[in-house]
Amino acid sequence: MSQEERNKAQILSGYRVLDCTVAMSGPFAAQRMGDIGADVIKIEPVEGEWQRRMPAGGGDRKINASFLSLNRNKRSLAINLKAAEGQAALHKLVKDADVFMQNYRPHVAKKLGVDYYTLKAINPRLIYVSISGYGAEGPYSARPGQDLLLQALSGAMYSTGQADGPPQPIGQYVVDATTAYAAFEGALAALLHRERTGEGQLVEVNMLDAAISFQMQELSVFTIDGKPQQRTQEPHGHVYIRAPYGVFKAQDGYVALAFPQLAKLGELFNEPIFLSMNDDVDSFAQRDLIHQLVAKHSANWKQAELIEAMLALGLWAGPVNDFAKTVEDPQVKFNGSFVEYEHHSEGHLKTPGFPIRFSKTPSTVERGAPLVGEHSREVLGAAGFNPEEIDRLISEGVIGAP
């Protein structure tokens, strides 16, 4: 299949997404739509989204790594939405758009003329995806919606760590990512509904509900069975899972071990205490002792030998990698978990790829993250603006272009 044929065959080929989002959750959701063929137009201020200028991980480049990772397969239209002509230009694009995404603070969208009811009047078939931190209304609606704050509010930080230690943040932007997938899923579901009925609609997603939903099992154990998050002294990996469950140091690295049968551990380590324990009782009641014993025995093994011995007994074990080892892992390479491509300003890039695989409509990188306003002329020209009009708007600061 040629590249042109593949582009036409992609699932969202022919659909247009207007992406008015910033930071991670919104841009990530819109990128997912671009990865499966949508024409995603990133609407950003004439000076560019602030995320472009953040020193992601301490890096220093023209387009930082964070922005590059969240904005591939998009075109950039740089536009001043505080100007009446800027709003009018965007409204013209809305007429032919399929999805509009925004994650502004409450009431900002209305001030900029891009709230749901304004855009619905222009295009009743529009799918309008609104992403917020806590919900459009309510006592926390005006608070900043940031990943760490939502991890804290949702209870997630008390599911790991030690009894006398502080709450433990998760080391990834997991709330942002979960929110992005909820927005992506909501947009696709609403498009399916529109295909069947012709109706557009408002889709609302918030980070708080996303953070609660990804703890479906943990919160249900609390709400249904009334069991609190009881942390123990040793660094157990999860308050609701029996011991041993966590990371253990070997001679030359670390091994992750997930709730093995204690009798098999007793056999492996020649540890009689394990042989007398009950998996369903002692592995909860004596978590600290179990962790201490596993840590003592693991320290006598080489990492690879311990993992091999555990797997041979049917125990769930594996290596603990840093990023350098993850990138070179044979299964990661086999899966093609990363994609490599040439970026027109940043050179050769390697980034996480496509977690969903389609046999007939594979995702591809058609373009890297755009420069600010890189496609302003192209997008407005296709919308009916003549070159002189575009030049004037650029000269007056309504539109941004390189």
Automatic annotation (TrEMBL):
Enumerate the Gene3D superfamilies for this protein.
Crotonobetainyl-coa:carnitine coa-transferase, domain 1 (3.40.50.10540), formyl-coa transferase, domain 3 (3.30.1540.10)
Keyword check for Transferase, yes or no.
Answer: yes
Xref: Pfam families: CoA_transf_3 (PF02515)
Q: Is Transferase among this UniProt entry's keywords? A: yes
Q: Which UniProt keywords apply?
A: Transferase
Q: Which SUPFAM superfamilies match?
A: CoA-transferase family III (CaiB/BaiF)
MF terms per GO, please?
A: transferase activity
Q: Which PANTHER family match?
A: BLL6097 PROTEIN, SUCCINATE--HYDROXYMETHYLGLUTARATE COA-TRANSFERASE
Name listed for the protein in its UniProt record? CaiB/BaiF CoA transferase family protein
Organism classification, top ranks?
A: Bacteria, Pseudomonadati, Pseudomonadota, Alphaproteobacteria, Hyphomicrobiales
